[in-house]
Amino acid sequence: MDFNSFKEDAEAWIRLNDGYELTQTDEKDERLYFKVKSVTFYLTCPGREKKNWFIWSDQEDTIQMLGEVTDYLSGCKQHTVEEVLNYTKKKLQPSVGGADDENMEDEDEYEEDIDDNYYEDDDIDACQGEASAANKVTLSDEEDELDRQFMGQGNPVAVHRLVKDLKNMKDANGKFGVVGEPRGDNLFIWDVKLTDFPKDTRLGKDLENFAKQYNREPVVYLEMKFPQEFPMHPPFVRVTRPRFKFLTGKQSSVG
């Protein structure tokens, strides 16, 4: 869809949802600006440079409420304007008030959609089986505790997403050959360990030889530095151990 089609769909949604206004459109940056009571936010539409929707607000309190919307939009599923705005409305409901109407879909359906697509880009089934209601409460409490632990370190949307990733990493417990955690109290720098490389591959064989020669684990250690714009901007990743041989044809030294 082009930007004008997204705009028309947004205008149609506005007509059915009292209190919401489409205050501005920016075709150059492909943005739709909205207002409901004192809350303002904008959507960047999928287009030339972005494959997914992006939601943001200049109001810090609103950004915190939009954390789950960011998770919802980060999956690979292509959402319609109506789906995005309905889910946003659901998450803003506690702040702006008002009763749900017949245009709102059931919240559980949205939550299921988030879980099913959370790691879809990596072909990882992050939700195996149905958790009990008690387990859901426990996991929610754990996320709240982590949110409080890292609160104030930066962009609330990035903090919320990294907390969710950290919880999922702990739950997986190395199941997918990846183990990682923040470095000390800094949520935006992670130390990550990659394991379980196939032994019949060149990398797997090299790591096995390295492990035997130096009495080390056959693993790769990474350092990941996340920007404040995460998850819309990717982290910087570098290999810290072991040192790999780069066949560039050049040698250089510093210092």
UniProtKB/TrEMBL annotation:
InterPro entries: Maturin, UBC, UBQ-conjugating_enzyme/RWD. Residues 99-111 have a biased composition (Acidic residues). PROSITE patterns: UBC_2. One of its GO terms (cellular component) is cytoplasm. It is found in: Cytoplasm. Keywords: Cytoplasm, Developmental protein. Pfam families: DUF4581 (PF15167). GO terms for biological process: positive regulation of megakaryocyte differentiation; regulation of signaling. The keyword Cytoplasm applies. Residues 92-111 are annotated as: Disordered. Signal peptide: none annotated. Residues 157-255 form the UBC core domain. Belongs to the MTURN family. This is Maturin.
